[in-house]
Amino acid sequence: MAELQKDPITRSDFLGFGVMGAIVGAILTIPPVAFVLSPVIKTDLLGESDVGSGWQEVGPVSEVLAEEPSHFKVEFPLQQLYGERAIQKKYPGSEKSDMKYTLSNAIWVSWKAPIKLQGRQGSSGDVVGKPERPAFLDQKSEGFTDSERKEIMSRLNVLSNSCAHLGCPVRWFTDEQLYLCPCHGGLYDINGGWVGGPPPRGMYRYTDAEVRENGKLYVRHKYDIEPGLEAQEPYVV
Amino acid sequence: MIGRIKTQTSEASQFVVDWMEHRTGIVTMLEHFLYEPVPKRGAWLYTLGSAVLFTITLQFLTGILLLFYYAPTTDDAWNSVEYIMTDAYFGQLIRGIHYWSANFLMAFIGLHMGQVFFSGGYKAPRELNWIVGVILLLLVVGLSFTGYLLRWDQDGFWASVVGMKIGSYSPFVGGYVIHFLLGGDAVGPATLSRFFALHVWLLPATIAPLIGAHLYLLRRHGVFGSEFEYTDRIAKLHERQRLEEYVRYEADEDEGEPYVGRRDRADREGYERDGE
Q1: What does the CA dihedral A152, A153, A157, A161 come to, rounded to 10 degrees?
Q2: Are B112 and B45 in contact, with CB atoms under 8 Å apart?
Q3: Is A181 helix (H, G, I), strand (E, B) or coil?
Q4: Whether B188 and A50 lie within 8 Å, measured CB to CB
Q5: What sections of B35-89 are H helices per DSSP?
Q6: CA torsion angle for A19, A22, A25, A30 (degrees, to 10)?
Q7: Interatomic CA distance for residues B271 and B276, integer angstroms
Q8: How much is the pLDDT for B227?
Q9: Which residues of B touch A232 (CB under 8 A)?
């Protein structure tokens, strides 16, 4: 072995260089990489979200008509960079507040239309009937009983306006009785089901939605994303 | 009178040029980079690469100017662009040049690539230049993509959202890449800051040395023909220049040839021997 060793480096030297190299290498690479990738670490490894997880008020359900969906604007607090709550609290005298940096979401709310014939994703949409609005909403707009609230929630579509294709904002077109995405022509029916165009699924539904005693709808920033399909997450909505 | 000033000026500038040449060799280098004989037929097609270089230089220059007024925060980004467009002197012109030369840059790159492809300019020994060129293309696409969001208007915002959602469908890495670009899991202040950092520092700093490599490789192999043909033509060019110089010195009978001139010629002859 010894005669092959042309370089007069000893084993302990080699080991020393290796250990020192690893330490110096780590000191030089880990801080900048972690600095730049901290959002990825927070989001993907620690599962944190920048969007506040609290309930936000949407609007009174009695205003949602049977014929067409209503849209409401909801502002979720956004915890990002200088929008971070801790930084804003530090300077309470300034105009900055919790609600200064928000994620503005438009939410389409409509009454479910019964599906008469189940469609198939990619070939045909559902055949739907007329949307069914609970009759008691004509009499009162607040102070619902538990059973009434349950009925409202079972009949309500609470949909994100972010297209399931590439996230553009969809709009309801009264003449066509469809939601239409302006970017690539995705079409959805009043229940948010796929009708036509490139979207791989129907519109995103808010999974955490509830009606309270004051007759208003509240939501949290959660969608019906199937497990294992993170790539379809509506990141931007 | 005017003739004497002319002579003095030309002598002074010649002195500066010679001084620089002997200390840096920059004149020979520039000669090698700038003088290239090209065939008359289809000569305009050889300007496409220069057009790309020109537009990207405009991007750098106008981009630096725009940075004097642009503010990369969600509160102020759009307003600062509005200020550039309405109040800053020549703001519309500077931003207009940045915007339009970005558009033309993409068009020129397409034409330039087409010209190289159809003339077979990517073949040996120029493969590496094609590869560097493709990397440059991707970097320019990245610059276009990140620049679009910085306006923070509806147009740029939704175009970026769509672009990022397209990227999010990439297998395995899609989600991570998008969270990296977004700076979290929603479009917000972090997204704008990141796109700003990428657009004004990371991508330009990457693209500049690669442009240098692209030009170096171009001059190493020449735009057209074999290397032999190229050096042959350069040698003929130098021969012609030497004759012209000789005639000039013959006409100037009063003084002998200055030392710098002799050195200069010796340098060039030495270079020529090396070149062949």
Answers
A1: 120
A2: no
A3: coil
A4: yes
A5: 48-67, 77-86
A6: -130
A7: 9
A8: 52
A9: 168
Nearest to B109 by CA among B38, B54, B160: B54
Q: What is the mean pLDDT of chain A?
A: 84
Q: What is the pLDDT of residues A69-127, one digit of tens each?
A: 999 998 888 888 877 777 767 766 554 445 667 888 889 999 999 998 888 888 888 88
Cβ neighbours of residue A130 closer than 8 Å, sequence gap 6 or more: A66, A113, A114
How close A80 gets to chain B, by Cα (Å)? Answer: 6
Instruction: Specify the amino acid at residue A47.
Output: G
Q: How does pLDDT run across B146-190, given as a tens digit for each residue?
A: 999 999 999 999 999 999 888 888 888 888 888 899 988 888 899
Q: How many CB pairs under 8 A join A and B?
A: 90
C-alpha distances (whole Å) from A16 to each of A1, A30, A32, A50 are: 20, 21, 25, 44
The type of residue at A182 is P
- Residue positions counted in chain B: 276
Dig out the tokens for A117 from the structure.
């014939």
Contact: A80, B190; criterion CB under 8 Å:
yes
Residue-level pLDDT at B46: 83
Residue B131 has φ and ψ, to the nearest 5°, of -65, -45
Touching check for B204 and chain A: CB below 8 Å?
no
Strand partners, A108: A71, A159
ipTM of the assembly?
A: 0.79
Question: Nearest-CA distance from A34 to chain B in Å?
Answer: 11
Q: Which of A165, A168, A235 sits opposite B178 (nearest CB)?
A: A235
Indicate the helix (H) or strand (E) that contains A196: strand A194-196
Hey, are the CB atoms on B189 and A82 less than 8 Å from each other? Answer: yes
**3-class DSSP state of B258:** coil
- By Cβ distance, the residue of B170, B176, B185 closest to A235 is B185
Residues near A183 by beta carbon (within 8 Å), at least 6 away in sequence: A163, A165, A166, A168, B158, B162
- Among A80, A166, A236, whose Cβ lies nearest the Cβ of B166? A166
pLDDT band at A237 (very low <50, low <70, confident <90, very high): very low
Main-chain dihedrals φ then ψ at residue B41, nearest 5 degrees: -70, 125
A4's tokens: 């092959």
Q: Within 13 Å of residue A10, how many CA atoms lie on the same side as its CB?
A: 3
Tokens encoding A79? 């915890």
**Is the full-model pTM beyond 0.80?**
no
